[in-house]
Amino acid sequence: MLIQLAIIGLLFAVFPLALVLISKEQNKFRKLIAVTLFLTFDLIIFGAFTRLTDSGLGCPDWPGCYGEANPFQAHSEIKAAETLLPTGPVTVAKAWIEMIHRYLAMSVGVLIILQMGIAWWKRKSMRHSPWLPTILFVLVGIQGAFGKWTVTMKLQPIIVTIHLMLALTILGMLVWAWQREATQLVLKLPPLLPRLLPFAFVILVLQIALGGWVSTNYAALACHDYPLCNGEVVPQLDFEHAYTLWRELGRTGSGDFLPFSALITIHWVHRSFAWVVFALLASVAWLSRQQAETKQLGNAIFAVLLMQFMTGVATIYFSWPLAIAVLHNAGAALLVLILSVLNYRVRSSAVPVS
């Protein structure tokens, strides 16, 4: 099975590798990073789709599906499970969604291993240290372990949330690796921007973690209206149970059923903190628009913030439609990508205006 899975991972990596080889770009290594970055972004979105369709346990073992490399070979076991419980967690469709997610993850792993190999092989002639691709390789290994635990620990919320945050960490580091291969620009920026950007990035990451906690606890519909929450400005809150991190899905730390007030708390905190994030990132966007080289990034931040607000509210009023929920997740990943680009450019080449 492991050999078959390795072959499938290699096959999934063939097309992006072909794009690198046929590219007219002179710096093939930078092109490889760019293709890996694009595929990682897609993987994060497909991971959100996997989670939102309840397909995380579509194959109840790891790394294969009922000990097989693909759902075709495990079809009889999957159908037997689906017959017993037609709505899941194991169905033919969910098994394929879960395994395609794993195949895409393996292909990203192959591309990152290739980056690390090239970086060490050509370390004397390359502009940068090979340690960043090496750290990425280590992170991919840790991410694979959390992917396994997501399944074996039955979607335990803290494990799934860390799995998401590691994926975004890898995305941000790939952005950093991609940007450092580009020609450096000298920017004249408002003095506040270099100081504000790192803080804004940390706040964004915290908000995404809160959003991941909403998703992994299935608390997206705990408040059925907006801007009020179930008709109240501040509903009854239960922080003790809401933020007990080490517990089973739907359970308290002591093993009892999670009270609904805890789900309301998880939802309310995420939507309330969103206003802090919105104000801070809007300030970053406004400051970025003051310089021609970063104006497009500032405009992009404004656009994605607007999309995040609209999709967040629409998720509530339209009862969590799949397409809008996936788009909301995509917006979070896109903000990480844009702010990673902006952080790199400001930190590596900015000259503050005195």
Task: Give a quick summary of the entry.
The chain folds into two domains: 1-182, no CATH class; 186-354, no CATH class. Helix content is 69%, strand content 2%.
Describe this structure in words.
- The chain has 11 helices and 2 strands; from the N terminus they run ααααααβαααααβ.
- With 354 residues, it is mostly helical.
- It has 2 domains: 1-182, no CATH class; 186-354, no CATH class.
- α10 (292-317) packs antiparallel against α11 (322-349).
- The radius of gyration is 22 Å and the shape is flat.
- The mean pLDDT is 93.
What descriptors fit this protein?
about 0% strand, about 350 residues, iron, oxidoreductase, mainly alpha, 11 helices, transmembrane, 2 domains, 2 strands
How would the global form be characterised?
flat
Radius of gyration: 22 Å
| Low-confidence residue ranges | none
Counted by DSSP, the helix tally is 11
What is the helical fraction, as a range of percent? 55-70%
Q: Can you tell me the number of structural domains?
A: 2
Strand portion? under 5%
- Total strands: the figure is 2
> Roughly how many Å apart are the termini?
62 Å
Strand order of the largest sheet: 1-2
SSE arrangement, N to C:
HHHHHHEHHHHHE
User: Please, what is the average pLDDT?
Assistant: 93
Q: Quick one: biggest sheet?
A: 2 strands, parallel
Helix-strand makeup class: mainly alpha
Describe how the helices and strands are arranged.
Layout (H helix, E strand, L loop, with lengths): L1 H21 L5 H25 L22 H10 L7 H30 L9 H22 L4 H24 L6 E3 L2 H25 L22 H4 L17 H29 L3 H26 L4 H28 E3 L2
Parallel strand pairs: 1-2
